[in-house]
Amino acid sequence: MKFFDEELLKNYKNYLVTEKGCSDLTVDSYMRDIFQYLSYVEKYDLDKVLVDKTVLESFIAELSKLGLNSSSIARKLTSIKNFYTFLFYEKKIEHDPSENIIPPKLSKRLPEVLTYEEIRKIINSIDEKSPYDLRDKALIEVMYGSGLRVSEVINLTIENLYREEGYIKVTGKRMKQRIVPLNEIAFESIFSYIHYGRKHFEKTKNNYLFLNKSGNQLSRMAVWNILNKRVKNLKILKNVHPHILRHSFATHLLEGGADLRSVQEMLGHSSIVTTEIYTHVDRKKLITIYDTYHPRR
Predict the structure, then answer these.
(1) Which of 20, 230, 246, 247 is catalytic?
(2) 149 is catalytic
(3) Which of 178, 200, 269, 280 is labelled catalytic?
(4) Which candidate in 20, 198, 243, 252 is catalytic?
(5) Which terminus of the chain has a lower count of CB atoms within 10 Å, N or C?
(6) 15 is catalytic
């Protein structure tokens, strides 16, 4: 492809695994969609492809002419939207041309979540005997305790912590900042890591909260590897990826009685429609309870 080099596409593939929590089959599918899109846009100037939504609208129209159904078109559009979001994160573009393009209306697949007991099992399995233990436990506590995306947690700095006030400052999608509450248990893990573990990773002056062994900011793939390592022998029969902690955070809040608007604000969703999917998860639980206990079941 003349527009994007192999290294960028490799990084995008890693992004799909770590940030979006995609399975190998989904990653392969998304990458095929991107290659198809890039083949289509080769006739356009690069600058136009990166900023002009008419190029993407033309591609969607072409798919429709080819006879693809709305489900297939929606999937391809999701692939492309993810790609543009990744380019925005990587500062390759200043504006996302797919931002205001609405996909065909489809029923949403409910996200898989961990139970609170499974969350506890993961966290309690970390012994805190080494700097890596302290870092990994703090990392998981923060991700579950505040529902952060992978890109948000790796960009946290020490200056983003406000323990006395009980919140952290997060920079989310499109560089929008928000305040997210964080529980005291998570703060205890963070400061235990800062005082007793983080200096092990420090090689140069670096304000990122979570560091790798070279003293640099953790990558998305590193976060995925950390979580994968921590659940490997725990016999949790689910696809555990970083984003499932975010799903679990939102679901557990709603199950506990939190209102939808507050959860939307904490997650940093621009539209409450995105947050509403978690109410469907809660309704599914209610139906299970009904089917179990109602005398006319």
Answers:
(1) 246
(2) yes
(3) 269
(4) 243
(5) C
(6) no
pTM of the model: 0.67
Question: 178: helix, coil or strand?
Answer: strand
Query: Is 95 among the domain residues?
Result: no
Task: Assess contact for 156 and 210: CB atoms under 8 A.
Answer: yes
169 and 216 in a single domain? The answer is yes
Residues 226, 127 share a domain: yes
**Residue among 146, 134, 147 at smallest CA distance from 210:** 134
- CATH number of the domain at 200, please: 1.10.443.10
278 is catalytic: yes
CA angle in degrees (0–180, nearest 5) for 96-101-107: 125
Residues 6+ apart with CB under 8 A from 36: 76
53 and 120 both lie in a single domain:
no
Active site includes 283?
Answer: no
Instruction: Give the active site residue among 135, 137, 149, 198.
Output: 149
Q: Are residues 249 and 194 in the same domain?
A: yes
Q: Could you give the number of structural domains in the chain?
A: 2
Catalytic site includes residue 195: no
Q: Would 99 be classed as within a structural domain?
A: no
Asked if residue 19 belongs to a domain, the reply is yes
For this structure, is 293 an active site residue?
no
User: Does residue 170 contact residue 156 with C-beta atoms inside 8 Å?
Assistant: yes
| Tokens coding 154 | 């790796």
Q: What is the pLDDT along the chain (297 residues), one digit of tens a residue?
A: 455 678 888 999 998 888 888 888 889 999 999 989 888 887 776 666 666 778 888 888 888 877 777 778 888 888 888 888 888 888 888 878 888 787 666 555 678 899 999 999 999 999 989 999 999 999 999 999 999 999 999 999 999 999 999 999 999 887 889 999 999 999 999 999 999 999 999 988 889 999 999 999 999 999 999 999 999 989 898 989 999 999 999 999 998 888 899 999 999 998 887 888 887 766 666 667 667 765 665
85 and 155 assigned to the same domain? no
By residue range, what is the domain housing residue 22?
6-89
139 shares a domain with 261: yes
- Of 173, 178, 200, 280, catalytic: 173
